[in-house]
């Protein structure tokens, strides 16, 4: 019985450590105490696109750990959706002439869906009161900006 309790306790400690270390990620960092600003929205370069999104846990959930996990997952899903919507808008703007927005959206989802789902969370923070989560989500790909804007492979 003691072995079982020890294993359960160890599992909770590892899970808690993983959550708290993911909170400690920093973007950038200055030399000699200087503050550096880092772009968290839009095109970072020709290969990188970022968005910032919020997520909230299910109503009624009282477990803090579960609330953090649920709110982070919700923020990631919202970020992925936002990126695909922004890519759709960029493709329509970059195209010459009239383009069907709905068909463009389907094409963008097929073309970039896997890349967007494979993106990275580069910053995570939670509110203390509700454990709502804010993330910065990044998608990278070779010549991504050209691919999105003009359909160039």
Please specify the SSE layout and strand pairing.
Layout (H helix, E strand, L loop, with lengths): L1 H22 L18 E4 L2 E8 L8 H31 L6 H17 L2 E7 L6 E8 L3 H7 L3
Antiparallel strand pairs: 1-2, 2-4, 3-4
Helix pairs in contact: 2-3
Description:
This protein is of the alpha+beta class and 153 residues long. It has one domain. It is 50% helix and 18% strand. Strands 1-2-4-3 form a 4-stranded antiparallel β-sheet. A hairpin with a 2-residue loop joins strand 1 and strand 2. The longest helix is centred in the middle third of the chain and has 31 residues. The radius of gyration is 19 Å and the shape is elongated. The N terminus is likely disordered.
Mean pLDDT: 76
Percentage of residues assigned to helices: 40-55%
**Distance between termini?**
60 Å
What overall form do the CA principal axes indicate? Answer: elongated
What is shown here, in short?
The chain is α+β, with helices and mostly antiparallel strands.
Question: Characteristics of this structure?
Answer:
disordered N terminus; alpha+beta; 153 residues; 18% strand; 4-stranded antiparallel beta sheet
């Amino acid at each position: 019985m003691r072995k079982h309790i020890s294993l359960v306790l160890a599992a909770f400690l590892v899970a808690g450590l993983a959550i708290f270390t993911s909170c400690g990620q920093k973007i950038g960092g200055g030399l000699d105490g200087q503050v550096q600003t880092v772009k968290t929205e839009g095109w970072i370069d020709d290969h990188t696109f970022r968005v910032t999104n919020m997520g909230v846990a299910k109503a009624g959930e009282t477990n803090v750990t579960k609330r953090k996990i649920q709110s982070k997952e919700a923020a990631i899903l919202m970020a992925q959706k936002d990126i695909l919507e922004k890519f759709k808008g960029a493709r329509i703007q970059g195209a010459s002439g009239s383009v069907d927005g709905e068909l463009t959206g389907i094409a963008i989802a097929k073309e970039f869906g896997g890349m967007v789902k494979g993106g990275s969370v580069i910053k995570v923070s939670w509110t203390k009161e509700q454990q709502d989560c804010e993330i910065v989500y990044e998608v990278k790909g070779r010549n991504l900006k050209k691919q999105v804007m003009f359909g160039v492979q």
